[in-house]
Amino acid sequence: MSDFPRSLLEFQRRFPDDAACARYLAVVRWPDGFICPECGGVRGCLLTTKAHTFQCYDCHRQTSMTAGTIMHKTHLPLTAWFWAAYLMATHSNGISARQLWKQLGLGSYKSAWLLCAKLRRAMVDPNRDPLSGLVEADETQISYRTKDDPPAGGGGRSGEGKLQVAAAVEIQGKGPGRVRLAVIENASASSLRTFLKASVAPGTTLKTDGWSGYIGTPDLTHEPHVVGPMAAHIVLPWVHRIFSNLKTWALGVYHGLRKSHLQAYLDEFVFRFNRRRTPHAAFRSLLGIGVAVKPATYKMLIDAGVRG
Ligand SMILES: [Zn+2]
Fold first, then answer.
1. How far is the CA of 64 from the centre of ligand 1 (A)?
2. What integer pLDDT is reported at residue 112 of this predicted model?
3. So what's the pLDDT on residue 301?
4. What is the 107 CA–ligand 1 centroid distance (Å)?
């Protein structure tokens, strides 16, 4: 059996109940088998009397599969978490909280929204490698909406209702490799350098439209292509394709993104894009990061503001 289900039917067969989900979380957490965090013992079993908890044969310490993870103190069944993770990871456009609420028959929209928000926290692997080789970089503006407003319109480089987003895309052969996206304060050299420092390895060759903010970025070889705005999509085809896909996705799935959560949505887009050839494996990595990432409180998720 593979590490992850490759179809909805297989998913359904493998995760019929919470015990099956708990056993899978144990495999994700201990790929080489159970290890007791107390005594290091390697013999343990899933308790039938306590939800998703393993007990060590040697010291009898009980270890909850959800404690200290994104699922910390969850009131939802693990099957709901698994369905949500599977749909968010494998559906090419993901799934909105509203769709998830209806599809899974969850008690409230709020619990569906929180489920999605917590899973989004597991979409950035803290150990991911920076982009390298040849990298296209550019910035754009994304419209956002406030609670009930329609998506903001208007133009201009810093118009109201718009946020600046920086992107970097690895070029592998004739196509795109991995991508990074971040909300930036503005298109100044300082904002762009902060983004590049976090996203791109030293020694990378950077391809840009020649915007002054990119010039002289330390540790990078710069390949500026000074062009008029109409031709930028020709010299930087992949970063422009990413921006276009991102905007279409934001409008289609979410009817415009909310300002305060924009970075989390960018992280979700990047997670799926970078795993577009292996969506079913992405389900496993989502749960893998989810059991390694510290839990967030409701307040932390609600307050998650814009960076920078
Ligand atoms: Zn033990």
1. 13
2. 94
3. 76
4. 37
The pLDDT value recorded for residue 56 is 96
**Where do the H-state alpha helices sit in 30-124?**
78-90, 97-104, 109-121
Which is nearest to 69 in space by CA: 305, 267, 287, 306?
A: 287
Reduced to 3 states (helix: H, G, I; strand: E, B; else coil), residue 219 is coil
How far apart are the C-alpha atoms of 258 and 265, rounded to whole Å?
9
**Beta-strand (E) ranges in the chain?**
44-46, 53-56, 62-64, 134-145, 162-172, 175-184, 205-208, 221-224, 257-258
Residue in 112, 138, 129 with CA at minimum distance from that of residue 200: 129
Instruction: Provide mean pLDDT across the span 197-217.
Output: 88
**Taking CA 263 as the corner, what is the angle to CA 260 and CA 268, rounded to the nearest 5 degrees?**
125
Lowest mean pLDDT among 67-71, 171-175, 177-181, 218-222: 218-222
User: Does position 181 have pLDDT exceeding 80, yes or no?
Assistant: yes
State the span(s) of the chain assigned CATH 3.30.420: 134-257
Q: What pLDDT digit, counting tens, does each position of 57-96 carry?
A: 999 999 999 988 999 989 999 999 999 999 999 998 889 8
284 CA distance to ligand 1 middle (Å): 26
| Cα-to-centroid distance, 42 and ligand 1 (Å) | 8
Name the nearest CA neighbour of 294 among 73, 85, 51.
73
Task: Could you please state the CATH topology (level 3) that the domain comprising 134-257 is classified under.
Answer: Nucleotidyltransferase; domain 5 (3.30.420)
